[in-house]
Design brief:
single chain; about 60 residues; alpha/beta; three-stranded parallel β-sheet; 3 strands
Length: about 60
Amino acid sequence: MPDHVVLIVDDDPSSRAVLRLICEAAGRRILEASTGEEALRRAVLDGIEVILLDIELPDM
C-alpha cells in the first residue's frame, strides 16, 4: 500500500487524538484540521489522498 498521508478532520480534539493513534499505529503520516475550511486548504496544498472526516462539522 502506498504511504499516503492521512488528513484527520474533526472539531473535537479528543476524536482527532484517537484517530491519530490508530493511524500512527498503522504506520501512516498524519495531518490534522479542526475546521472544514482548514481541511479544504490542506487537502489542496498538501495533495491529500486519504481523509477521515467528521461529517457533522459546524462549518460544513
